[in-house]
Amino acid sequence: MARTVHIIGAGLAGLAAALKLSARGEDVVVHEATAFAGGRCRSYHDAAVGMVIDNGNHLLLSGNHAALDFLRYIGASDRLIGPRTAEFPFTDLASGESWTLRFNNGRLPLWIFDPGRRVPGTRVLDYLMLARLIRPPPGRTVGEVIGCDGPLYWRLVEPLLLAALNIDPPHGSAKLAAAVIRETLAAGGRACRSLIARDGLSATLIEPALARLQQRGAQVRLEHQLRAIRFGTRRVDALDFGGDTIVLAADDAVILAVPPYAASALIRGLEVPTEFRAIVNAHFRIAPPAGQPPILGVINGTVEWIFAFPGRLAVTISAGDRLVDTPREELAKTIWAEVASVTGLPADLPPWQIVRERRATFAATPAQDLKRPGAETAWRNLVLAGDWTKTGLPATIEGAIRSGNRAGELVAHRQKQKNHE
Ligand SMILES: Cc1cc2nc3c(=O)[nH]c(=O)nc-3n(C[C@H](O)[C@H](O)[C@H](O)COP(=O)(O)OP(=O)(O)OC[C@H]3O[C@@H](n4cnc5c(N)ncnc54)[C@H](O)[C@@H]3O)c2cc1C
Prior knowledge:
Blueprint: E1 4-8, H1 12-23, E2 27-31, E3 43-46, E4 51-54, E5 59-61, H2 65-73, E6 80-81, E7 87-92, E8 98-102, H3 128-134, H4 142-145, H5 151-165, H6 174-183, E9 194-197, H7 201-215, E10 219-221, E11 228-231, E12 236-240, E13 245-247, E14 253-256, H8 260-266, E15 276-285, E16 295-299, E17 305-309, E18 312-317, H9 328-343, E19 352-362, H10 366-370, E20 382-384, H11 397-420
Parallel strand pairs: 1-2, 1-14, 2-10, 7-16, 14-20
Antiparallel strand pairs: 3-4, 5-9, 6-9, 7-8, 11-12, 12-13, 15-18, 15-19, 16-17, 17-18
Helix pairs in contact: 1-7, 1-11, 2-11
Bound molecules: flavin-adenine dinucleotide (FAD).
């Protein structure tokens, strides 16, 4: 009889693992606690703005190769939009200046030598800061490796690392910052094109993945929360879903692709990251003005990035813990005042929604990074996945998908080994 691989959690890590294994002809069942797939990366219909919005704006870069392969495999590459070349428009609310960073395609960073392409107010030598961050000593914070000040820091390094690590950069892990810089800026403009899901995260990443899984015969069971794992000596014996229990056959395997707090509740003694950072998003139902770029960086404001979608402007604020208790209306007004001033739109507050994800990502500090477990566990039929496992990247779509791919490969590889024994 063919074996079954049970995947717990239908976030991107779980879906990536399911796609890998079902592509190999394995029987796959995905069990998801909530009524929807996508986890922290999903869309929903919001009554306040009367339209489908994402739980949070998500930015991909053209160097996110696992994410782009995932999209290709589910037939959804064309649902991401972005400029043809790597360019990032910015505006500074304090000085009123606007500029566009324009990276050249190749690895040699010629843009640094061109005052029209680099960050205004910077000199070529300032960019040595980036070189220092590429191979930092282990266990250090960004603040211990570079001086977190000066125009290059405030206008490029801070916005980049704040968005990628979701932590105030001086406290962030220099190792994780280095991974981001190696895979983006240091890889050249070809790896730095910004890509956003114009029609929403679910329409781009989740629904096509579910359709592909269905085509492959994989089952996705929603509202089927794993309550407990029954452990044998070196293997998992059964999965307890409350109302029903699945007893695992000899070759069955389990991929646990849930957030860290859920994983540690299911596996006693598992060390996982325990600190988190919030992300705050504000959505405004209003047509973006003509010429509004798909993504605009804002310096010296509460707002950090403004995303333009059809009929909607949406704002992202990373490491937004300081804002999670601010009254929602007050926050909407503060954010809209900045958006109106940047875009020239009327000051009247349009229909709005604030979405605060309190545990958006684990806190990307060196100490929390050390707590991330690898994919393998002490039980030979149990493998871990998720953006918080030891991917070498901060908590991102790319990290989640790589972890799911790796978990799928491990499970497949172990079965191959067993067949040879
Ligand atoms: C607001 C916001 C903005 C972000 N912006 C970006 C961005 O711009 N770029 C980027 O690359 N990344 C971004 N991220 C990070 C990205 O969304 C995550 O890294 C990624 O979605 C994590 O996927 P995952 O599968 O590891 O975890 P999750 O998405 O958390 O999936 C875990 C799943 O497991 C389910 N589950 C939990 N417990 C159980 C159980 N007991 N039984 C069954 N199912 C269970 C959950 O319901 C969930 O569906 C952002 C995240 C947020 C919240």
